[in-house]
């Protein structure tokens, strides 16, 4: 299934269980104007609720992954009485988008094809894994335009690199190139740009063929544990074990183990 015309600012392709969401404003470095944010929110929400989508990939077209807020639109709104739209967009767009991206109960990968800046970096950090082209990089650009961080950066960035490094990257914005992003933990893997689609495609296909309910439960458990006591984390782990133990995929896996065969998962 493919959604969106070639000139749509966000494209969706759903093939073999992999939902690929592509930011498609290459001439604007995949920056986020209001129309793009509204469509991205609609698509991310739809994919989150679609059982046919068993793994999600977020990527961009052209030279950028996403450079965050469209500053041309931002300036226009500032100068033409649109300040309400500017500062309600966090609650109306950015927060719902990153919440849907970070909480859907299925694996989410970022295929970082180019620079990810501002809210674009934040969106990548909300994904489970970041596969980064060797020509790409991250920039927490918020302070450069005298704004606070948004789109979950204050939550996800310290989880990836620790509080001290997160504060450094936010206070002193710079482009963290691919190799350094791997050293810091911002990237899980760095690959030649020409190989990015193939590497991500193979990883996404493997996840899409996996036990989706179990993978979603793992995702939920790890996220939940970041902000609670150990006792609370163990309580959710117990609930998730009960939930996944009742799935058809678990039954299939046990039967395959006994038969010394490879299980085939259906995502239920």
Task: Please describe the topology of this protein.
Layout: E1 2-3, E2 10-15, E3 18-23, H1 34-49, E4 55-60, E5 64-66, H2 71-79, H3 83-103, E6 108-112, E7 115-117, H4 119-125, E8 129-133, E9 137-139, H5 153-161, H6 163-171, E10 176-177, H7 178-184, E11 189-191, H8 196-208, H9 212-225, H10 230-245, H11 248-258
Parallel strand pairs: 3-4, 4-6, 5-7, 6-8, 7-9, 8-11
Antiparallel strand pairs: 1-2, 2-3, 9-10
What is the third-level CATH name, the topology of the largest domain?
2-enoyl-CoA Hydratase, Chain A, domain 1
Domains, number = 2
| Biggest sheet features | 7 strands, mixed
Report the CATH C-level class of the largest domain.
Alpha Beta
CATH architectural name of the largest domain? Alpha-Beta Complex
Task: Tell me what you see in this structure.
- The structure is a single chain.
- It contains eleven helices and eleven strands.
- The model has no long low-confidence stretch (mean pLDDT 94).
- It has two domains: 207 residues, 2-enoyl-CoA Hydratase, Chain A, domain 1, CATH 3.90.226; 47 residues.
- It has 268 residues and is an alpha/beta fold.
- Helix content is 49%, strand content 16%.
- Helix 1 packs parallel to helix 3, helix 5 packs across helix 6 and helix 9 packs antiparallel against helix 10.
- The strands form two sheets. A seven-stranded mixed beta sheet has the order 1-2-3-4-6-8-11, with helices on both faces. Strands 5-7-9-10 form a four-stranded mixed beta sheet.
- The longest helix is centred in the middle third of the chain and has 21 residues.
- The two termini are 21 Å apart.
- It is globular.
């Amino acid at each position: 299934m493919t959604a969106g015309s070639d000139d749509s600012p966000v494209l969706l392709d759903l093939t073999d269980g992999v939902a690929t969401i592509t930011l498609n404003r290459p001439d604007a470095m995949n920056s986020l104007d209001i129309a793009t944010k509204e469509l991205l929110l609609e698509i991310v929400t739809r994919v989150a609720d679609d059982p046919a989508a068993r793994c999600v990939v977020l990527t961009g077209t052209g030279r950028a992954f996403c450079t965050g807020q469209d500053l041309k639109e931002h300036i226009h709104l500032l100068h033409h009485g649109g300040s309400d739209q500017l500062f309600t967009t966090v609650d109306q767009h950015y927060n719902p988008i990153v919440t849907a991206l970070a909480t859907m109960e299925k694996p989410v990968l970022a295929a970082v094809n180019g620079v990810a800046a501002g809210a674009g970096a934040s969106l990548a950090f909300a994904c489970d894994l970041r596969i980064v082209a060797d020509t790409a990089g991250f920039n927490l650009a918020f302070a450069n335009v005298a704004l606070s961080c948004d789109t979950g950066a204050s939550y996800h960035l310290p989880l990836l690199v620790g509080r001290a490094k997160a504060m450094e990257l936010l206070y002193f914005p710079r482009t963290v190139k691919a190799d350094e992003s791997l050293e810091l933990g911002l990237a899980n893997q760095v690959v030649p740009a020409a190989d990015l689609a193939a590497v991500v495609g193979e990883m996404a296909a493997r996840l899409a063929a996996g036990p989706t309910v179990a993978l979603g439960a793992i995702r939920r458990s790890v996220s939940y544990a970041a902000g609670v006591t150990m006792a609370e984390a163990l309580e959710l782990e117990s609930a998730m074990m009960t939930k996944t133990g009742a799935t058809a995929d678990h039954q299939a896996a046990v039967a395959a183990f006994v038969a010394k065969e490879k299980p085939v998962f259906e995502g239920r």
